[in-house]
Amino acid sequence: MRLRAKTRWLAMSWLLTxxxxxxxxxxxxxxxxxxxxxxxxxxIVVYPDDASTGVPANLPLARATNFVLDVxxxxxxxxxxxGTVTITAPNVTLRNCRIxxxxxxxxxxxxxxxxxxxxxxxxxxxxxxxxISISGNNVSIRHCxxxxxxxxxxxxxxxxxxxxxxxIHDLQSQWDGPHFDGIATDGGITDVVIxxxxxxxxxxxxxxxxLSNYFGPVxxxxxxxxxxxxxxxxxxxxxxxxxxxxxxxxFLDNRMGKGHYGYASINNNxxxxxxxxxxxxxxxxxx
Length: 287
Known about the structure:
Number of strands: 30
Largest sheet: 10 strands, parallel
Distance between the termini: 35 Å
Helix content: under 10%
Radius of gyration: 18 Å
Shape: globular
């Protein structure tokens, strides 16, 4: 295969019936990168998928018995939780764990300075379920595999949040009025970085990323270098509700698969929009 063909192949997407692209297998992408020249390698981005997120393959997990993490400074690793996990103590790290739950959130973060890494979050398609609900500050979510939820990650009343290199996909919720969002907020957030994630919404509503001011302001949110696919509009920055302004939002260098109605719905704010391209055609996108 010629180099140009390999590079083009990495950027191609096979469309689902809902018009949403699926990510190429990580192993094949890595093989193509290995054969590429140093100049081409510097330009190729491999986005998160099943192989690069969640609990490492073949890592044994022990059945968890405690579902409330209330010890400050604790590091919890290698557990299989069958039920909602709630973090109420600061400085907690949750790593290499599986959470399967049918409550209103699989993982509920209510405290500050929390780190979540390489976890598998399964909402089991429960009605209205969030994969991760964040109401604490200084929280980092990295390399997690989040699926079968209505909202992959939901933010409320939180600041200094980093959501990086996660795979959010297969959004499902078994009731008659779901609003599917990969990452969502209805306001009350500030200083949020959403970077390097793959977010696939296989439905014709609502979004890969939803920012709205329904309950409060949204300030300083950077959405950068993600692969964002599907929904009604792929991304929203929706300031129509009046519960505070939306300001200092940026969408930078993202790949976007067009939602059912379009790429972006922007109301009553002017985000910084630069370097965003169509996931299939690789054409530049205007706001």
